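$ ./design --mode recover --in tokens.txt
reading tokens...
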């Protein structure tokens, strides 16, 4: 056979193989359930978003073994923690990728997405604490703490440290404002023995809190509650100590999202308190932390247990439903508890699937271990 014929034959076989491969890829894409993840991958909450993305990656790998018949394909878009950017990201994922199931984080972003999710009768899993996220139920499922659960944990804890006069410094976003409102509501309950003597809000990127905190000290608070996320939260804690406040502070769950808060606070973090998840002593959770650290060469935030778990909750809902969005929603709404490889998440109803939180004390010496449940 002549050389030219051989070349033509080889090329023809190659074309056929490429066509078969392309067909398999297309078919695989058709069979997969497409999930659109709108996360803050750049900007002030980037560490939060990247940790979520990494946890989802681990979950997808594990699902291939534990749920081999359930194929999930996740498409990522960057929200920059900005509601307008998130809406544009949603349109790309919905119109171009044909995603029907979505993930989001950050309260402001999630609240902006909810109307579009409901209007198009889609499903959204939200890692966001604002109470209005699941206000009308149905299409939105929160896999997160809630403002209510955090505020109650703080209110229950105040008698333990003899605090009755509380000053609240909160981020001026939806999360911080709702948090402050809930603390005020709890203070008005007759059985609660504390008062909110004042509260102030700060904007994104604030670096100087001294003026507002100096004013706060004139109110003679027993404890300062610092609500926020990451670096700015840590700066507020450090400056609170620098202006002479020696009493305890309590940091919201945003304190554990990244290591930024601890680094910004420095030694001022000592003898303070912060919210954390109860489940961290579970050996399965610690194993997840070790796997994450080994693969991504960094110590993750404890919040990854939620991002990891939600993918198994979704996979289980797909397995036990007929595959339609209405059936998936029914499965999510009727189950009271969801078992995952790292523990149980509880369905409180109204779309709230949460992990319990409690308050921990920062040790007086040594490293601050966010993965300790003590």
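writing sequence...
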């Amino acid at each position: 056979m002549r050389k030219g014929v051989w070349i033509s034959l080889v090329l023809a076989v190659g074309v056929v193989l490429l066509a078969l491969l392309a067909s398999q890829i297309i078919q695989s894409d058709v069979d997969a359930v497409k999930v659109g993840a709108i996360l803050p991958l750049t900007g002030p909450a980037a560490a939060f978003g990247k940790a979520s993305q990494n946890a989802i990656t681990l979950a997808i790998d594990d699902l291939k073994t534990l749920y081999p018949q359930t194929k999930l394909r996740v498409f990522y878009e960057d929200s920059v923690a900005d509601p307008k950017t998130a809406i544009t990201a949603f349109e790309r994922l919905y119109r171009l990728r044909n995603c029907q199931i979505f993930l989001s984080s950050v309260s402001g972003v999630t609240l902006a997405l909810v109307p579009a999710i409901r209007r198009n009768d889609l499903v959204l899993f939200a890692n966001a604490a604002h109470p209005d996220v699941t206000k009308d139920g149905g299409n939105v499922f929160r896999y997160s703490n809630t403002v209510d659960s955090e505020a109650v944990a703080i209110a229950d804890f105040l008698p333990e440290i003899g605090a009755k006069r509380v000053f609240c410094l909160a981020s001026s976003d939806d999360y911080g404002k709702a948090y402050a409102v809930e603390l005020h509501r709890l203070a008005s309950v007759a059985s609660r023995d504390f008062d909110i003597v004042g509260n102030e809000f700060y904007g994104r990127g604030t670096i100087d809190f001294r003026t507002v905190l100096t004013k706060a000290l004139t109110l003679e608070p027993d404890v300062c509650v610092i609500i926020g996320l990451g670096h700015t939260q840590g700066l507020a804690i450090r400056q609170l100590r620098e202006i002479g406040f020696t009493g305890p502070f309590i940091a919201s769950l945003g304190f554990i999202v990244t290591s930024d808060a601890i680094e910004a606070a420095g030694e001022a973090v000592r003898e303070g308190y912060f919210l954390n998840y109860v489940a961290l002593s579970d050996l399965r959770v610690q194993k997840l932390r070790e796997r994450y650290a080994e693969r991504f060469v960094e110590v993750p935030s404890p919040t990854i247990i939620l991002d990891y778990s939600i993918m198994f909750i979704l996979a289980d809902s797909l397995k036990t439903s007929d595959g339609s969005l209405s059936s998936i929603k029914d499965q999510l709404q009727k189950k009271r508890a969801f078992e995952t490889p790292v523990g149980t998440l509880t369905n409180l109803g109204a779309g709230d699937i949460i992990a319990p939180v409690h308050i921990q004390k920062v040790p007086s010496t040594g490293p601050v271990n966010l993965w300790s449940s003590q």
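exit 0
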